[in-house]
């Protein structure tokens, strides 16, 4: 739950940041984020793969979302 909450804070920060101040033009930036838990007996690579699956789920669901792997 902490990772998902942290990812949601990051997503909201990216979405609300004043990007026009950085590039001098109007720009909308959003983020799709996938999170997964490293479970006992799982390799780190497996957890990254699961987070990647969650990322693609967030993109398929409309983007600018945080999704977790179940």
Q: Can you give keywords for this protein?
A:
two-stranded parallel ribbon, single chain, 70 residues, mainly alpha
The pLDDT mean sits at 93
Strand content: 5-15%
Broad structural category: mainly alpha
**What order do the strands of the largest sheet run in, or round the barrel if closed?**
1-2
User: With helices defined by DSSP (H or I, 4 residues minimum), what is the helix count?
Assistant: 3
Helicity level: 40-55%
Please summarize the sheet with the most strands.
Answer: 2 strands, parallel
Question: How far from one another are the termini?
Answer: 12 Å
Unreliable segments of 5+ consecutive residues: none
Order of helices and strands: HHEHE
**What's the β-strand tally?**
2
State the shape: elongated
Q: What is the C-alpha radius of gyration, as a whole number of Å?
A: 14 Å
Please characterize this protein's 3D structure.
- With 70 residues, the chain is mainly alpha-helical.
- It is 53% helix and 9% strand.
- The protein is built from 3 helices and 2 strands, in the order H-H-E-H-E.
- The protein has helices spanning 2-16, 19-23, 44-60; strands spanning 33-35, 66-68.
- It has a two-stranded parallel ribbon.
- The protein is elongated.
Question: Concise description?
Answer:
This protein has helices at 2-16, 19-23, 44-60, and strands at residues 33-35, 66-68. The protein is mainly α and 70 residues long.
